[in-house]
Design a protein that fits this description.
This protein has about 45 residues and is mainly alpha-helical. The chain contains two helices and no strands. The protein has one domain (about 1-40). Keywords: Membrane, Transmembrane, Transmembrane helix.
């Protein structure tokens, strides 16, 4: 298992993970803003 963690020890992996997490947070915010908020404000 130690070999597996050493394989992903490069700073590029941390950068990639941070980028994906940032995009995920932005997409979640946009989904809530564009789909959930109008559904709550204007119930069918």
């Amino acid at each position: 298992m130690a070999h597996l963690t050493e394989q992903f020890d490069h700073p590029a992996w941390l950068t990639a993970a941070g980028t994906l997490a940032g995009y995920g947070i932005i997409l979640l915010f946009m989904f809530l803003l564009l789909f959930i908020l109008p559904y709550l404000l204007f119930p069918a």
